[in-house]
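User: My notes are a mess, but here's the protein and flavin-adenine dinucleotide's SMILES. Can you give me a structure?
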Amino acid sequence: MKKRVLILGAGFGGLELASSLSEALGDTIETTLIEQSDHFVFGFSKLDVMFGMAEAAAVRVPYKSIAKPGLRVVRRTITAIDPAAKRVTTDNDVFEADYLVIALGADYDVAATPGLAERGYEFYSVAGAERARTVLPTFKGGKAIVGVCDAPFKCPPAPSEAALLLHDHLEKRGLRDRSEITLVIPFGSPIPPSPDTSKALVAAFAERNITFVPNRKVRALPAGARVAVLDDGTELPYDLFLGIPKHIAPAVVTASGLTEQGWIPVNPRTLETRHPGVYAIGDVANPGTPKAGMFAEGMAKSVATSLIAALSGQGKPVPYPGAGSCYVEFGAGRVGRVDVDFFSGPKPTGAFHGASTALRADKEQFGASRRARWFGLKG
Ligand SMILES: Cc1cc2nc3c(=O)[nH]c(=O)nc-3n(C[C@H](O)[C@H](O)[C@H](O)COP(=O)(O)OP(=O)(O)OC[C@H]3O[C@@H](n4cnc5c(N)ncnc54)[C@H](O)[C@@H]3O)c2cc1C
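Assistant: No problem, the inputs look usable. Here's the predicted complex:
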């Protein structure tokens, strides 16, 4: 009987792992990728949708175009995970595996911030970005806040990017002079591992008159007051609130008993959980690196080497390096890049590549290369 690998979740991590296994082992093994949605969306596309730079329909990449030897993609909602038995229950059936990889990402707990659902606009989900997109054209100028409600959150540069793109949006509509933009984040600097990137972002905020409020979270948007209450009690008036909601592990993961302090603890180099043959990768795992697609992809590549070695004797496991590059939108069509490395030295580092139009082309190529590798799509 062929060995069975079960991958839960077809996001950055699951797609990269499934592609790597198919490429190396083809149909000598049986890989099943379980996903509840019929399409994938790159995280950064949500900013494009919110600011009207892309239609939601255009950024959906359908799973039905995936055709890879040894890989079966099944559309199911996972309802229970038994890590000890490597058994997964879905809304339709039960799957058993020799190796189980959990790549279910992070969910949002919008209700954890009172008033966010009623008076603010979260833009971290596609539905939220679409709602924000419909309200932005109705904003006539005033006080706008981009605020983070809790940590950890996906893609640490994204709130800064949203503030800079909001500036462009308001300028284009002739409303910037009548508007104030405030950015609230829970870190002391926009990108803590990279002082150079942080410096460039803080300079970009200053040039655009964006008020930067570090080391704070947004605790509530109380009814009737039009103020955002921060975790030190400060009240910031707003007319438009764009929020990053509290992130949580999907409920099915928490119910499996795998989480500690909210996320799945793993060996940071092998991504193994405490159950033999069970791995966790991407946003749902906590290896000590940020929640970002590039890191999810890096974890998938490492787990792929372990599974390929175990299943075929080819090669040997390559430890997860804890390093990756993130593109950063600086507005005005320019993109910067930060190459972060969490594991090599005594403390994390981040090399900054200044914003340019050439890096925008690189970012586009990054998306196109994943569409080609994971989905077999051109362009
Ligand atoms: C606004 C924004 C901008 C971003 N920009 C960047 C960027 O520029 N660069 C970058 O590297 N990262 C970026 N990210 C972060 C990136 O999108 C995530 O970190 C990445 O998608 C995580 O990959 P993952 O595989 O862990 O999870 P995901 O990609 O979230 O995939 C998890 C999958 O599991 C599925 N799933 C969940 N529960 C179930 C269930 N019960 N049953 C079946 N399926 C289920 C989901 O449908 C989903 O497809 C951004 C995110 C946001 C919100």
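The mean pLDDT is 98.
User: Great, I'll file this with my notes.
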